[in-house]
Structures
1.
Amino acid sequence: MDQLPLIIWSVSALVLGLMVGSFINVLAARLPFEKSIVWPGSRCFSCYRPVRLFDNIPILGYLRLRGRCRDCGAGFSVRYLWVELGTGLAFLGLFLAEVVFNWFNYPGLVWNYRFDPTPPPPLVGVYVYHAALVALLIAAAVIDTEHRVIPPLIPFTGLVVGVVGAAFLPWPWPHPPAAAAFAQPGIPWMLLPVTGRVPEGVQPWPFYGPAFAVSLAGTWKLGLLNAVLGALAGSFVVRGVKWLFETGFGKEALGLGDADLLMMAGAFLGWQPVVLSLFVGAFAALIVFKLPAIVIAAVRRTGVDRELPFGPGLAVGVVVTWFAWPWLAPKVQPVFFDIQTLLVVVTIVGVGMLTAGLLLRRREEPEPQPQPVGK
Ligand SMILES: [Zn+2]
């Protein structure tokens, strides 16, 4: 059976995801309350008796006890089940996309599972690196949904993992460094018809080109610089949009946890996909989260929750932008690699944010404001 390695590895990815999802549940239950995440072991929140090892097995433990505590019968939130299952499927999906179907077109890093029982070790490393990003995004989204806060431990752990991994996987790897030869001085290389598309590596793009004197293509210095600039860009694009929008709108929008979330994603993906993912994320928050909330509120005849968390939309925005990158990259190349075009776009978007804020303020003004209660 020549598909056996494929099945074994896929099931392993799924099981790994279920276990990580189980740990994310622990994080979601403890991090917002600043409890230790390693001690003590899992406990029932009602009777505080420890959960037995076999009852703690992802999915199966929950289903066998029908989501109840074995000792006191208190119900566990069905969130535990969905987070475990969702993380498991996300890990499996990433494995199929990245390792089996080579979604990101990594040259030379292809697993021919019919002939080779194990994927190329560098590809497994890339998978683990990206699975960490996915897990951290899920953790941030779950905790933000439940508690309206993204505990800093999550994005700052991601920052460290992202930056260290980036130093080992610098652009244009796994393309050879010679793939960067297109970036010659004096050639308008950001224009597709002249020099073609920028090759995408595990680190999707270099931060800019062709000025690579301090950080040659394929060196750890470029990887490191890419990750640091990506993290800074992720943090500052949220802060910038927050400032512009709030200046116009006059009310708080976005949180600093959202800035930390994009900071983490920037360390993994570089600045260009991350800046785009803020706008994709705003769109996702509107379509995937806000619209259903409005519909549900209309059906139940209740008020719409105005303070929907932005973290889940942002996490979706990061993943969508990242997976669309092979298709998206050549379309946005003339903007991101030409400083003049970039400045024009930044100005237009900035003015747009300010205007949108002002327009929304006009609409909101007639609404009576509740008087602040003395604290
Ligand atoms: Zn109990």
2.
Amino acid sequence: MSALAVGVIGTGMMGEVHARLLNDRIGSARVVAVSDPDTERRRMVAEAVGAAEFDDPMGLIAAPEVEAVVIASPDHSHAGFAVASVQAGKPCMCEKPLATTVDDARLVVDAEVALGRRLVQVGFMREFDEGHASLVSLRRSGALGEVVAVRSTHVNPAPWAPGVTAERVITQSMIHDIHSARFLSGAEVEAVSASVVPFAAGSSGVDDGAVRFVAARLELVGGAVALLDVNVSSAYGYRVVAEVVGSEGTARTSEGSAVEMWSSGARVEKVSANWPEHFSAAYLTELTAWVSAASEGGVTGPSAWDGLMANVVAEALVDASTRGERVEIARWERPAVYER
Ligand SMILES: NC(=O)c1ccc[n+]([C@@H]2O[C@H](COP(=O)([O-])OP(=O)(O)OC[C@H]3O[C@@H](n4cnc5c(N)ncnc54)[C@H](O)[C@@H]3O)[C@@H](O)[C@H]2O)c1
């Protein structure tokens, strides 16, 4: 079988990571087309992988030589490109979040339901992380008993953009943890509340009103709870730790690095500097699984439905953080194409 011909939309940090992994590490794929309004970055990535350059991302999706699409452009543009991929009948790997609003995410789900099958895989790569996948296997095996709680801590080294608001922290960063709460517990969310800690007034280099920490409490159908927190600015590096508390046992992803060091009266273990380092293996596993499924004309892993549900919870959390109140979430009927 010939290598899957992939077009990449958005050649920023994440688009470049995906393009290089597809081209250099996955023998069954090659990047044939890239599109980005930043012509310098586009050229750099096109030359690195030997791809053609497209001015118009919709033209890339429609191009007959492009068999499958990776969407790594800014969040607000994802849903439109994902709908176009579905309507062109081409499998796509759409970076998280699926959309920035519930209404936009719903358009993607509606497009797949109209088609009658899935063509969108959402970039919630933690499903492909060894530690997170082990937690799911343990939960499914029954070894932990009934799920009582899920905990997740998500630590960024520094704000990723100026003036980061609670809405951006929740929709861009905590959206990963929201998805983790759902796939680690196997339950949907029925109510949320949130607490937000801003940077102290006058913190150097930080805009007024920028958010430093968000804590969320998700009430899950069946009675369990998920406790999630995102630290925007740890000043020490990047960390993600997830834990499933069960009635018969508790399991947690390991923080351990390969090496411990004893120095200056302390024992230290290295912390990842950033997300590409921490989840490098997960991104490769995610793309390998996508290429394998897309070569057969389909997709696997997190679905547009998962993307929509994450947006539903994120929107409720933004509302809860703004109003300082508990917000209930209506039940959604899952279409048959999303039965796993
Ligand atoms: N899964 C993860 O862990 C993870 C990590 C980081 C980023 N992301 C997601 O990946 C996406 C890209 O993030 P990034 O960090 O690479 O951002 P980035 O700003 O580095 O790159 C975005 C690129 O998209 C280009 N762009 C802007 N509008 C476009 C359009 N209409 N069509 C095509 N390209 C367009 C920009 O010029 C830029 O080069 C975001 O949605 C982000 O949330 C996911």
3.
Amino acid sequence: MALSEAEKARYYKEGYVVPDYRLPEAQVASLRDTVNYLIEANPGVRPEQLVNAHLASPSAEGVRGAAELLELAKEPEILDLVEDVIGQDIILWGCQLFCKPAGDGMEVPWHQDGQYWPIRPLATCTVWIAIDDSLVSNGCLRVVPGSHSDQQLHSHYTDDRERLTLTQAIEPQHLDEEAFADVELRAGQMSLHDVYLVHGSNVNTSVNRRAGLAIRYMPASSEFNRDLIEPSDKSGYKVDFSRRPLWLLRGQDSSGKNDFSIGHA
Ligand SMILES: O=C(O)CCC(=O)C(=O)O
């Protein structure tokens, strides 16, 4: 087992966990080069909004990604962590780089991920990997521990303030903001979080960049329904799930409903 019993218990109770496992330094250095490449290759996209960063050919969202990130998402050590929380039938369905540049990194408002995604029953474990140190000072991930525990999606509204990474924000009556925890990570460390966990992050006005990669895995007992959400920019940027490729990385498609042929170049 990759997570200790205590780490697993923490994930279930709090909705997130920071495992002991971390990436080697040389790999983190190489990932930093990849982040620099992605920023250069996508001059028209905010670096917080590099959706489908694992797809080397330009995706439906117009982002040119990097094959190295797809390889990272397939690494057995990471899949072992994911298997401990969502079981052995694992689908990779998404990957987003949230890179907040030094000085002007944008906020991510409080939200539940499930608000954005066409997965039923709703389920996903996100592995969020720190490529730079991610600290309070440069806008690390913040979570409301235990906010996932009723496994309910709460109402969101469109936050129309300028300079937001995402624009769907949870309604204030569902937010216990006082109870938040900062998830500070050193480069190479990672956190895992549940699809119902309320989380967000602050702006980055510091002199240090904060790049984090969110890799999305779902149990194959759920269906990725490409017809459920029309292509739109409701998130604050364009997302089109209709040709989104899926990879069955472990086990079987136990729902029997997922199509693994769509969207592969
Ligand atoms: O990187 C961040 O600050 C936010 C990440 C996030 O919202 C997510 O992984 O769902």
